From TrEMBL:
Belongs to the cytochrome P450 family. One of its GO terms (cellular component) is endoplasmic reticulum membrane. It is found in: Endoplasmic reticulum membrane; Microsome membrane. Keywords: Endoplasmic reticulum, Heme, Iron, Membrane, Metal-binding, Microsome, Monooxygenase, Oxidoreductase. It holds the Pfam family p450. GO terms for molecular function: heme binding; iron ion binding; monooxygenase activity; oxidoreductase activity, acting on paired donors, with incorporation or reduction of molecular oxygen. Heme binds at residue 476. It is a peripheral membrane protein. Its cofactor is heme. The keyword Membrane applies. This is Cytochrome P450. It comes from the Eukaryota. It comes from Bemisia tabaci (Sweetpotato whitefly). The lineage of its organism: Eukaryota, Metazoa, Ecdysozoa, Arthropoda, Hexapoda.
Length: 532
């Protein structure tokens, strides 16, 4: 080969030589790119062209559009299709639109779509050993062992923690209302402090003091950093667009190393403190993980969760609850538990301000539950609050905070009734934001209407069209905790205060284009008036 190049070179001038080399490289690159971008067209699959997808991702990275809007645009471009091809950079992915197909892929065909992404390299990303990112049997084992942490018995204990945190919020608000009987407040920030206290206590058994002393809450700062879209996360995504494994090869993680360091250290310190303190009766997530790790777990199977699919596979043998896995799982709970819960609570309170009649109906419902329960809303009473359930469900419909579901195709699968084969490695996306705002499934989607979830109407919702917590064996492990968390805060505020607009309340909440979840942009101001 070397001789051939030399021979050819002797016939052409050096400048012609360079032109030939550049042209050949260009031609090869063209064939490579052409093959990539024509992936779906060659297979006869309707698709959003790669050029459009790349342009959309760049608008997200430039902070001009939210990821939800982009997926909604793609969903609309594929109008009339059950699914369609899209691209993540140069790599093919599928956006599923049809609720029946969504159900099938998330639930029935789970064995072909059991991961969210290919297995990460934990040597590069030390926190990658968490439930979101774990794959295959290791995910199966961790999920199986962690599920009992969300059983009814454990939730009942956590409810007491939630109530303590809500009490602290109430004391803070009462102090603010002391002179005038009312106060104006950035409810987004306030609720996020409450959520920080709750999740710090539930995840690690630590007191974050975010409500009492927000300025000095280190954990809150770190969580903010974790979610911030900075140059690292932008670079990470640009590299991923070229090749999904490129960031890993270049040892780039989407967050600052200091964040990782802080979280590893705080988990390690908390573990050391717990070990020193001896066997604790507290059942925060870290304690449960430590118990599993030392094979002293006293957790029992949660009868409410169907683990049959999990049990269908091989449960991983051998020690997997390493320090990194424990840190990964527990910190993923911190992140999963903070932004979505505080965002949904904020949206819910904002809608209640916009709909005073709903606020009043909710207040009456809570009051009568209190009367029946000697003045206190107990864990068991939560399920009696039907209207609260409707209001919260409708908030999740209009604002599905975790609005994009992702799966990685783990083996070639033929689409039912079609010749198209989804190849191993193709990413699958579901935009709950687009589904929840599709008038086919939810008429007049911009209207906040809790009646969609009334006893008479709830059965009209098409299975697979309403998925605030995902579906199938990988649905949100903490769904019931999240609902309890949101409801406790709403009960506290609606019971003690009437919620109103103030001069700083916006007419329409804009979404933060820099957030990965659906999150209000900027502050959300409300006026709280103490009930007498
Ligand atoms: C409003 C609150 C929340 C919402 C809307 C929400 C939503 C979701 C969604 C949509 C998924 C993906 C499901 C799927 O792919 O099918 C998920 C997964 C997950 N969530 Fe949540 N979540 C919330 C709160 C929480 C909390 C409080 C925690 C932890 C304490 C948590 C922990 C997790 C974990 C660990 C997963 C990954 C589960 C797995 O892959 O096995 N989430 N959540």
């Amino acid at each position: 080969m070397g001789n051939l190049v030399e021979l050819l070179s002797s016939f052409v001038s050096p400048s012609l030589n360079s032109v030939l080399i550049v042209a050949s490289v260009g031609l090869l690159a063209w064939y490579y790119l052409e093959d990539k971008v024509a992936y779906w067209s060659k297979r006869g699959v309707p698709n959003v062209p790669a050029s459009k997808c790349i342009a959309q991702t760049l608008t997200f990275l430039a902070g001009r559009k939210t990821m939800n809007e982009i997926f909604k645009e793609q969903y609309q471009l594929l109008e009339g299709q059950k699914y369609g091809g899209t691209f993540q950079g140069l790599y093919p992915s599928i956006l599923v639109r049809d609720p029946a197909m969504i159900k099938e892929w998330l639930v029935k065909s789970f064995s072909s779509f059991h991961d969210r992404a290919p297995e990460p390299d934990e040597n590069v990303d030390k926190l990658a050993g968490n439930l979101f990112q774990l794959t295959g049997d290791r995910w199966r084992t961790v999920r199986h062992k962690m599920s009992p942490a969300f059983s009814s018995a454990k939730l009942k204990i956590m409810y007491e923690t939630l109530k303590d945190c809500a009490e602290e919020c109430n004391a803070h608000l009462e102090a603010r209302c002391a002179s005038k009987g009312e106060t104006e407040i950035d409810i987004k920030d306030f609720v996020s402090n409450y959520t920080m206290d709750v999740i710090g206590a539930c995840a690690m058994g630590i007191k974050c003091n975010a409500v009492r002393d927000p300025e000095n809450c280190e954990m809150k700062k770190v969580v903010k950093e974790m979610f911030a879209v900075g140059w690292r996360s932008i670079l990470f995504q640009l590299l991923e667009m070229i090749h999904p494994k490129l960031p890993e090869l270049l040892r780039i993680v989407p967050r600052q190393p200091a964040v990782e360091q802080f979280l590893m250290t705080i988990t390690k310190n908390a573990m050391e403190m717990k070990t020193k303190a001896g066997q604790s009766t507290r059942k925060d997530f870290l304690q449960i993980l430590m118990n599993i790790s030392s094979s002293e777990s006293d957790v029992t199977r949660d009868s409410n969760e169907d683990l049959s699919v999990l049990e269908g596979g091989v449960v991983h043998e051998g020690p997997i609850f390493t320090e990194n896995i424990i840190a990964g799982v527990v910190t993923s709970f911190l992140f999963a538990g903070l932004e979505p819960v505080s965002a949904i609570t904020t949206f819910c309170l904002y809608e209640l301000v916009r709909h005073p009649e709903m606020q009043e109906r909710l207040f009456q419902e809570i009051q009568s539950a209190r009367k029946e329960s000697c003045g206190e809303i107990k864990y068991e009473d939560l399920k009696k609050l039907r209207y609260l359930d409707q209001v919260v469900n409708e908030t999740f419909r209009k604002y599905p905070v975790a609005s994009i579901l992702a799966r990685n195709c783990t083996e070639n699968v033929q689409i039912s009734g079609e010749s198209v084969v989804v190849e191993k490695g193709v990413k699958v996306f579901i935009s709950t934001y687009a589904l929840h705002r599709d008038p086919t499934f939810f008429p007049d989607p911009d209207k906040f209407d809790p009646e969609r979830f009334s006893e008479e109407n709830v059965d009209k919702i098409i299975p697979g069209s309403y998925l605030p917590f995902g579906d199938g064996p990988r649905f949100c492990i903490a769904q019931r905790l999240a609902l309890m968390d949101v409801k406790t805060m709403v009960i506290t505020l609606v019971s003690g205060y009437t919620l109103h607009t103030c001069s700083k309340t916006v007419d329409h909440i804009e979404m933060d284009p820099k957030a990965f979840t659906l999150n209000p942009k900027g502050s959300v101001w409300l006026r709280l008036k103490k009930r007498i």
